[in-house]
Amino acid sequence: MLTYFAILALLIAIPAVAGSLIRASKGISLRVPQGLARLFCKIERLDGSELIALALTVDLSRVTIDKQPAVLGTYVLRIQFDSRHVTYRGTGAAGDAYFFSTPLATDAGVANERGMVRIAAVQTNQSAPLGVVNVARAVFVEKQYGGIEAVRVSIESVTSALEINEQGGFRKKIPIHFEGESQ
């Protein structure tokens, strides 16, 4: 005998599955991304000093949506660090033509208290950037040599660019699956 909750779950699930099947049978794309986005972090020592820049790159070269290369629309990155070893100074643009302005980032004072900074940006071009995208540069001061090695960078979210449908309306952004910490 089915319980009340099992019946309720079926009543919710059946229309959702049926709707997906109907859309698929009408030839409407389900817009499912294939492949994983990856994050790369290159450590650059600035002028031989204790200043260290982390060049952050999102790689979508293996990601497609409906067999087309995925366009990077938004990203949220997380940098975790031990404030006994490094101090976060700030974040700047990395020079990509589509992510050209300084991304939003956690205030340096708050980041250093918590040992974590989030960096986020959005762009609205529907056809680019594709592939490997240099998104940001985070700058740290190394308090002791080798302190930067304990910094961990990861993706919190990545989505495709906002698309316009045939009627001129907006489609929602499509979440892109990603690998864990940077390589």
Describe, in plain words, how this protein is organized in 3D.
This protein is an alpha+beta fold and 183 residues long. The protein folds into two domains: 1-30; 33-160, Immunoglobulin-like (Sandwich), CATH 2.60.40.1170. It has two helices and eleven strands; from the N terminus they run αββββββββαβββ. The chain has a four-stranded antiparallel beta sheet. A four-stranded antiparallel beta sheet has the order 8-9-6-11. The chain has a three-stranded antiparallel beta sheet with strand order 1-4-5, with no helix packed on it. The longest helix is centred in the first third of the chain and has 22 residues, at 4-25. It is elongated and about 55 Å long. The model is unreliable at 1-30 (pLDDT under 50).
Briefly say what this structure is.
The protein has two helices and eleven strands, in the order αββββββββαβββ. The chain has helices at residues 4-25, 108-114, and strands spanning 33-34, 38-45, 51-59, 64-65, 68-69, 72-80, 86-92, 104-105, 116-122, 132-142, 152-160. The N and C termini lie far apart (51 Å).
Task: Please describe the topology of this protein.
Blueprint: H1 4-25, E1 33-34, E2 38-45, E3 51-59, E4 64-65, E5 68-69, E6 72-80, E7 86-92, E8 104-105, H2 108-114, E9 116-122, E10 132-142, E11 152-160
Antiparallel strand pairs: 1-4, 2-3, 3-10, 4-5, 6-9, 6-11, 7-10, 8-9
